[in-house]
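ok so heres the complex, two chains, lmk if somethin looks off
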Amino acid sequence: MKLADLTKGAGEWLRGAGPMHDVVISSRIRLARNLAGVPFLAQCGAEQQNEIEQRLRREILDAGIANEVLYVDIAAAGELDRQLLVARHLISRQHATASHPRGVTVSSDETCAIMVNEEDHLRIQVLRSGLDLADAISDIMRVDDLLETRLDYAFHAKYGYLTACPTNVGTGLRVSVMLHLPALKMTGEIEKAFRAAHDMRLAIRGLFGEGTEATGDFFQVSNQTTLGKSEEQIVREFLTEMVPQFVAYERRAREALVERRVVAVDDKARRSLALLRTARLISTDETMYLLSLVRLGVNTGRLDEVDLKTINELFLLTQPAHLQKMLNKKLESEDRAEARASYIRRRLGAD
Amino acid sequence: MKLADLTKGAGEWLRGAGPMHDVVISSRIRLARNLAGVPFLAQCGAEQQNEIEQRLRREILDAGIANEVLYVDIAAAGELDRQLLVARHLISRQHATASHPRGVTVSSDETCAIMVNEEDHLRIQVLRSGLDLADAISDIMRVDDLLETRLDYAFHAKYGYLTACPTNVGTGLRVSVMLHLPALKMTGEIEKAFRAAHDMRLAIRGLFGEGTEATGDFFQVSNQTTLGKSEEQIVREFLTEMVPQFVAYERRAREALVERRVVAVDDKARRSLALLRTARLISTDETMYLLSLVRLGVNTGRLDEVDLKTINELFLLTQPAHLQKMLNKKLESEDRAEARASYIRRRLGAD
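and the predicted structre for the whole thing:
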């Protein structure tokens, strides 16, 4: 498996399936882990950071976490490859732009990724399509157990797993769910949904995680603290209480739209698909905006010319890093806009 | 011939032919005339205005100005019919909204229209497709001569024809040419063209004449004064100097766009056509904007799925009055937007 293979598809987690996939794009769980008896990364010198990276790379590759894995030495990777991994949600922006020894292990289906020497020594992540947190939690526990047989984790009998940032102490677990809420946006009820999220002590972010705004119609909700609750409890709250509430809000808003303003829904969905099929130049932002409206059209049964998998994949594959990786060269903004439009037309069978 | 027949087509002058029709939509000449020995309209009482209207209606209908003519008593006409006549450039807005006795005679091909009791007793107008002022001036002179055998015009040996407003004294002639200048707009050179028009002492107006802004990419240029020049001189200046200059500017800008930014031209033209073909709701303003870009695509040879005649007709037939007349009922704005979108899709063969 090579890194370039990643541009061929969009990862298992974007296939547009799984529970409540009409509203929930994907579910993600990550665990923060550190080695016992070794300082946190920020307290290590370059040599020690290098030793940690070498050791963890070896142990992870030997642990057999998946049939096929790829290890990327981020410090040695090119800028485009680093951007690609960020766009695919396999590493964080911080991990891409840091300068110390670090890496990431990725399973070939991209459902599992383990960052080495991010903020913590280990950041284990599991991704799923739709609201499949039950499967995600059992998978990440399996990976965590596999690694724990080989590594001695920093763990405190009272506080739990010790982490570089106090907000992660305890389970070290963060659950994030990516929601598509175009109808709530269109009816103006999205602010109400945000307030509800705030009351549930959830953080809201944009499509590309921490530091990105919740633009367009995509919102990532995640827990803010991990202390004082068990892994199962955090996941259960997401799975049975919080996310189903958002899904119910959005579904009701979609039904109301189709009932009361069906022509407006048809208008927006059809215009958006037509633009994606004919544009010769298109920006990332406009692409996201149009894909979102097409997705709404498909999910309300008003549009049947495209499938969810294609739409979900286009969200990812039209990002700057992917276009450049697919064409194997760095492109200026205007050239990217042309390459993006051309790629979209081909994928939508319009060329 | 009935007024309702007017909604079936768009008038001979919008057929997208004639000299320089890639830039010049249409040419218009009008003459202001008043009866000798009768006060100007504003100085007449209601009874005298009525007498003038009755007399002129009879004389015009008897004069044989065209094979088939329609006389519309504007004071008796419904609001929708009056709006329809304004949209088709057959009467002025002022004529539509006034309340005194008045009318208009229209030839069945709409190339000739004679308003009775507008600002002057008579306003004769001739319309042509493209820059066909030579034909227009000879036709309007023919009509003027026909009427002059029956009517005694107010004429002063030194000043010429006497009119209600001093700016029309002399020949009483106004030439207006409707230009489509999308490339100058896109390249930002339109301001330069406006300054040139100002230097030539031309007035610039929007698509629907006096009181409308020059929005979109359509501009109507016309002479501001008529005194001191002969009819032939005014027309010759438009025909051989002023309009060809604008046409040359616009054509050069189009060539430059295709040479340097062909992808942007393709992008705009194709997106616009796609939107017109798929929208379920569309405003008049957006329709004009999109049609303008489609027209640019056709005129630069980058788009061949639509003909100029259809585009020109849509400019007119998508106006509120036409939609309502075609559907034979008054519609609210949202319903008009739906009817407009549906009509456009049908005309573009997209439904």
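quick notes: Strands of chain B lie at 24-33, 69-73, 103-107, 112-116, 122-129, 155-156, 160-161, 173-180, 202-205, 218-223. thats all i got rn
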